[in-house]
């Protein structure tokens, strides 16, 4: 199915969770923030939240700097 990641169309498995999608893309949960269809999603919900066709995700990677 097609979802939108940071504004770009991307394919993912039907009925995949956000946690599965992030893992598939090699993103470390402790350094990632997810917005799902306009709402910030707590990390504890990533394993439960199933994606649907045309869902919109904004994924931000947190990096330390100085």
Short description:
The chain has one helix and five strands. It has 66 residues and is mainly β.
Which labels suit this protein?
66 residues, mainly beta, five-stranded mixed beta sheet, 1 helix, 5 strands, globular
Q: Strand content of the residues, in percent?
A: 25-35%
Query: Globular, elongated, flat, extended or rod-shaped: what is the shape?
Result: globular
Largest sheet: 5 strands, mixed
Radius of gyration computed on alpha carbons? 11 Å
Protein model, in words:
The chain is mainly beta. It is 11% helix and 32% strand. The protein contains one helix and five strands; from the N terminus they run ββαβββ. A hairpin with a 2-residue loop joins β1 (2-5) and β2. The longest helix is centred in the N-terminal third of the chain and has 7 residues, at 18-24.
Helices, strands, pairings?
Layout: E1 2-5, E2 8-11, H1 18-24, E3 32-36, E4 39-40, E5 56-61
Parallel strand pairs: 1-5
Antiparallel strand pairs: 1-2, 3-4, 3-5
